[in-house]
Amino acid sequence: MFKKVVIFGVGLIGGSFALALRRAGQAAHIVGVGRSLQSLERARELGIIDAVATDAASAVQGADLILVAAPVAQTGPILASIAPHLEPQAIVTDAGSTKSDVVAAARMALGDRIVQFIPAHPIAGREKHGPEAALAELYEGKKVVITALPENDAADVEIVAAAWRACGAVIHRLSPQEHDAVFASVSHLPHVLAFALVDDIAAKPHAATLFQYAASGFRDFTRIAASSPEMWRDITLANRDALLTEVDAYLLQLQNIRAMIAAGDGPGIEKIYASAQHARQQWAAAIEAAERKAS
Ligand SMILES: NC(=O)C1=CN([C@@H]2O[C@H](COP(=O)(O)OP(=O)(O)OC[C@H]3O[C@@H](n4cnc5c(N)ncnc54)[C@H](O)[C@@H]3O)[C@@H](O)[C@H]2O)C=CC1
Ligand SMILES: O=C(O)C(=O)Cc1ccc(O)cc1
């Protein structure tokens, strides 16, 4: 049981962590810190946090667990604000969607206290944001990737892992670099594609007509284009190198398919579609079975 949990950024991810940890009986007192007082007050009304802190020093005083759950470019400034006040017993973790940049920012901000920072990323979420979107069950059966650092104490890593397990999550471990390469491919690229497609259609003179006839396939493909622009701007730039590799590979595939369309190459097109269909079916069956087993 944590005596005092502090959440920087009480939105979908930080708010859901607070709700899940409290439901599991693992947090005696939860304090929120943020950019918008109005949003923090709303989080308190919703029972997500017990108190609002207006400065970093008082927020982290006596804290045993601190979670940074703000857009990833905020990680450095937030950690710099708490570094002078960090007590030795406090464990600091984060929920950012990228890890190499977060670790670099943490090293800069925390110096020797980097031992106290355990980077992590819950692989659960949705396109809605803010405290109203928080759900106690968001992490049930979902993965949390911990990208522990060589400096970390194994016992501290286990405390963060146990907190996420209490929220219903299953722990995986990757290096920050492995993490960023994986998520560039299966999360960051799909978000870029969805934002790009919707923006492209919205900019056409007859956009209203096009949207009027868009069906459920369009809805499924573009759901994530309703996600937070600030959060995704930060992720896109933070994971620039890995993301450019994936964008280039995708452009090649699009050019390949374009050439097949122009040439009327039905068998070539069908071969790609059949391979994708098979991979998608296998993936869905495996992920659903794993989540059923975990929850
Ligand atoms: N949305 C998703 O599905 C997932 C998001 N993440 C990561 O979790 C983090 C939070 O994302 P969400 O909860 O979705 O966003 P959100 O927009 O719901 O919440 C972020 C909160 O951070 C606050 N904030 C912004 N700057 C701040 C600062 N300097 N200090 C303190 N608070 C600040 C905002 O006011 C907002 O309340 C991001 O790093 C994101 O990459 C990770 C997994 C899934
Ligand atoms: O909306 C969705 O389905 C997502 O893909 C949620 C998501 C967003 C960012 C992450 O780092 C992890 C999960």
TrEMBL record:
Keywords: Amino-acid biosynthesis, Aromatic amino acid biosynthesis, NAD, Oxidoreductase, Tyrosine biosynthesis. GO terms for biological process: tyrosine biosynthetic process. Residues 3-291 form the Prephenate/arogenate dehydrogenase domain. PROSITE patterns: PDH_ADH (PS51176). It holds the Pfam family PDH_C. PANTHER family: PREPHENATE DEHYDROGENASE (PTHR21363), PREPHENATE DEHYDROGENASE [NADP(+)] (PTHR21363:SF0). This is prephenate dehydrogenase. It comes from Herbaspirillum seropedicae (strain SmR1).
